[in-house]
Amino acid sequence: MTDARLFTRRAALLGGVAGGGLLLAGCDQLTHSADVQRVLHAAERLTYRSQRLLGGGRALAREFSPKDISPVFKPNGTTYPGGDDYAGHVDEGFKNWTLTIDGLVQKPLELSVAEIKRLPSRTQITRHDCVEGWSAIGQWTGVPLGLLLKASGLKPNARYAVFHCADNLDGELAKGGEQSPGQYYESIDLVDAFHPQTIIAYQLNGKDLPIGNGAPLRLRVERQLGYKHAKYLQRIELVDSFSHISGGKGGYWEDRGYEWYAGI
Ligand SMILES: Nc1nc2c(c(=O)[nH]1)N[C@H]1C(S)=C(S)[C@@H](COP(=O)(O)O)O[C@H]1N2
Ligand SMILES: [Mo]
Questions:
Q1: Which CATH superfamily is domain 62-256 in?
Q2: Angle between helices 145-152 and 3-18 (to 10 degrees)
Q3: Is the peptide bond before 216 cis (omega within 30 degrees of 0)?
Q4: Cβ 228 under 6 angstroms from ligand 1
Q5: Confidence tier at 67 by pLDDT (50, 70, 90)
Q6: Is 220's C-beta closer than 6 angstroms to any atom of ligand 1?
Q7: Which of 44, 201, 210, 247 is most buried per CB count within 10 Å?
Q8: What's the pTM?
Q9: Looking at the predicted structure, is the pLDDT value of residue 29 above 60?
């Protein structure tokens, strides 16, 4: 199926949920121009440059079979966001939790978890690698992020997707660098945002996400390290630069010294 037809079909599916009237024009052109911008601005680490220049933008992370799934998927970092808000959402079974997509988009979206679960989904069994030295294999189900982005219609200057999370995390002394508490956030470029394995997951191993693993929604961006996989997702903001957000380095751990491009 051509990209254009796939795009139209997906957009039609999403239209039923998001209220129709989606602005679809020019998305492919916008994606393309973002590619061009990305090449012009290529200034990241060697792994990032080589992956992009070697045309690896679409290469898939390895997928495993059900027998490989780890018996326990260790929750790490925040395992229960503080504050009454989150506890209230837990009590309500996340009925009123929403995911907002805004910033440099034609049509901002706000979707409930139930609406997201009705969209086309992808299931993948992948290995998660944390910089702390542990790995786990899990099966994730969620909506492809690219589908949501196409439905919201990126503006031509959109270059990054920023993921805003519900939790305020204390730094860990062991990790070096600035250790002030802060709202957890992350960001990826549009190549990773439109990558087929980049999903907004709502299931782990066939069940609703456990609280410890990011309920009700979390990012899976399979070609990057664990800290990029933002949990407790509330908002995806499209930006042309993340220098004005929090510490300006594109993520909670990036602001505390980690690399922005955490390719595996
Ligand atoms: N919101 C939020 N997302 C987060 C974190 C966090 O503390 N808060 N920790 C990150 C890190 S370092 C890892 S390894 C993974 C852990 O995911 P898990 O809890 O499902 O194992 O989530 C990442 N995403
Ligand atoms: Mo991690």
A1: Oxidoreductase, molybdopterin-binding domain (3.90.420.10)
A2: 80
A3: yes
A4: no
A5: very high
A6: no
A7: 201
A8: 0.83
A9: no
